[in-house]
Write a structure and sequence with these properties.
- Helices cover 32% and strands 29% of the residues.
- It is α+β, with helices and mostly antiparallel strands.
- Strands 2, 3, 4, 5, 6 and 9 form a six-stranded antiparallel β-sheet that branches. Strands 1-11-10-7-8 form a five-stranded antiparallel β-sheet.
- A hairpin with a 4-residue loop joins strand 2 and strand 3.
- Helix 6 runs antiparallel to helix 7.
- It is globular and about 50 Å long.
- The model has no long low-confidence stretch (mean pLDDT 94).
- Bound molecules: calcium ion.
- The site of calcium ion has 6 residues, from helix 5.
Length: 247
């Protein structure tokens, strides 16, 4: 039987969590561009919020300028442009020095989906009731600890688990990790900050995404689960679902 990729449904939500005063996460839902992203900013004062918002604005505008081309190279170039923009802002104002942000982004060009990421915000793919992690964290525990033989559980609870080895805005040359997926009808993508995936385990994520609820309900459940586990950080989740077409 022939399926084609039809309607794309999406929903995004961000929550300050239970112990932070401000929300340094940002996200973008740009269905006309086929672009969805999450950025988790860091830095003193309001610098984290500025970094994540510059990243979102720059990636959106660069992807828009590159249309009608939608390629993984364009997505990576857009993230590099965000890096330059953040460094530029930081160089002009001492309050913003050292600011940076993660980025996880998906550019849809069905059936392809291009993924670009920096830092530890993640993309998961739920397909056929199973959850797969697409991105790999640029963190000390993942890049170094794993090669030292740390277990998954040790990686999840290690005191260095939040130490990034790469961030947008950190330096002039950054490593952007990219992937290419081939989407299938029914696929559900979850982009999220570590305020979600660092708190809610993959069993909790899988069960929530597998439920028959709407995307909005699933997203609210994810936020609720993270808050119930203490909500130590800002929590952001973007869901993108590929529906089965009629044709
Ligand atoms: Ca965070």
């Amino acid at each position: 039987m022939l399926h084609c990729l039809g309607v794309i449904r999406y929903f995004g939500i961000s929550d300050v969590g239970c112990s932070r005063n401000s929300n340094e996460d940002a996200f973008a839902l740009e269905p006309e561009l086929g672009l969805f992203m999450v950025a988790d900013g860091m830095g003193g004062a309001q610098a984290g919020e500025l970094a994540s918002s510059i990243a979102v604005d720059t990636v959106v505008s660069c992807v828009r300028e590159a249309l009608p081309a939608r390629t993984v190279e364009n997505l990576v170039a857009a993230i590099r442009a965000a890096n330059t923009a953040i460094l530029q802002q930081a160089s002009e104002n001492a309050d913003f020095q050292g600011m940076g942000t993660t980025v996880v982004s998906v550019l849809l060009n069905p059936p392809a989906a291009y993924v670009g990421s920096v830092g530890d915000s993640r993309l998961y793919l739920a397909r056929g009731g199973k959850l797969g992690r697409i991105t790999s964290d640029q963190t000390w525990v993942n890049d170094v600890g794993r090669s030292l033989g740390l277990s998954e559980e040790q990686i999840r609870t290690h005191p260095f688990r939040n130490v990034l080895t790469m961030a947008v805005g950190a330096r002039e040359r950054i490593e952007v990790r990219s992937h290419e997926l081939s989407l299938e009808p029914g696929d559900l993508l979850l982009l999220c900050s570590d305020g979600l995936h660092g708190v809610v385990d993959e069993v909790g994520l899988t069960e929530t995404l597998r439920s028959p609820n709407s995307l909005a309900q699933k997203a609210s459940t994810l936020i609720r689960l993270a808050r119930r586990r203490g909500g130590p950080d800002n929590i952001t989740a973007v869901l993108v679902q590929v529906e089965t077409g009629d044709g």
